[in-house]
Specification:
This protein has 273 residues and is α+β, with helices and mostly antiparallel strands. It is built from 8 helices and 13 strands. A 7-stranded mixed β-sheet has the order 1-2-3-5-6-8-7. Strands 11-10-12-13 form a 4-stranded mixed β-sheet, sandwiched between helices.
Length: 273
Amino acid sequence: MTRLEVREVTSEELDLVEAVCLDPSVPLKWRIAMKPAMEKRKLWLKKMMRKGLQVSVVFVERRRRVEGSEDKPMAPKGLVEYVPIEYAPEPVTGKNSLFMDCLWVMPPCWRHGYGSCLMRRFLEKAKDYGGATVLAYEGDRWFRFFPYMPADYFRKFGFKEVCHDRTRVLLHLDLGAHEKPVLLLPKRQGLERGSGRVEVLFNSQCPWSGWMAQRAHEDLAKRGVVSKAANTDRCAVMMKYGLSRGIVVDGNPVVCRMASQREVESAVKAAAR
């Protein structure tokens, strides 16, 4: 028999968040390399918690069927992270809505209903705001190999499309406030084609984002390409690009999510041609 428990974690329990973000299925060398980015994420979470951000974690306990045996301790298997839409770490605007900036379940635990448990918690919280909003993805995979925040999943819970930009889909569920959010579209930076300027956008909301930026910078440097890492934690920077993460070449947004090194290299080569 499996028992589930969903509860919010405090700013003193962020190691539980790390246990989900960098779960054992992630290769050890990657977890070690991503440790600095994870520490920055924890600092970001503490700062955002003062603005109303909350993280709910699903814990799982598998009871032994042997009489007299002790139960196994509860272990974190997934999380949902949400914040009032005014403080969303994505290029969206709106009011009277709760914005989900992350729903993640450890890959070995997919299709066990843990995501649904987290969704129910999020929607219960969103009732107090009058709406629920999420920026999802359609027909795309992060780093080109795993699905993250797929739009069809949220549609099962009644979310409706508000805006569609490339593979990003802004979805909203009206819970009484009748306020639609708005997605800000990626912006060109007015540079001449062939300028050779490469910008890697990242934020502290996700440790994979910072890790991506560092890997991309190092890989481009080996090829003699100068790149700039743009931290979009500051709202002004995010609004300038109309993106929170991605790759910008010659002022043109070419990837609007976290990218693999191969994608970065291909984008730079395409711009050079």
